[in-house]
Design brief:
With about 150 residues, the chain is of the alpha+beta class. The chain has helices at about 35-45, 50-70, 120-125; strands at about 20-25, 75-85, 90-95, 130-135, 140-145. The chain has a five-stranded antiparallel β-sheet with strand order 1-2-3-5-4, with helices on one face.
Length: about 150
Amino acid sequence: MIPSSLTARPAPVPQSGEEDEQILPLPGCPRLLAGIRRHARVTLTDWALPQEVADDTLLVVSELISNAVLHALPPAFLRLVRRRTETGGTLGIEVTDGGPVTRRPTDHSIAPDEHGRGLTIVRALSAAHGTRGGPDGSATWWAELSTP
């Protein structure tokens, strides 16, 4: 079920300007996600984004990739897109996974107050966010941040 706070619309398409893209396959193991976050940080540094934008982006990336690996079927991948225009730009974050797991295992070792904040963080840091389903049952969760 898609939370009502997320709109089911496609990610925005750039109208003009330049676009850079980085696509990273996600490992199926949550312990290996640190490497994806490090690679994303290198990409954001290469794109010379302001530190505040890079930090916010990495937090959104972390939430979305964690959700994909913990709560969805493989395969999954992260797509970062920097769109530059004459008036500024945007940074798009997309995580596509194989679709929802039919039944989630319950981990009773984790306190309930340590979960459930990810989409609230995504909502707070992004200018726009949403999800869209693919014809193959896949799901893409996306967020967009404004850049100077």
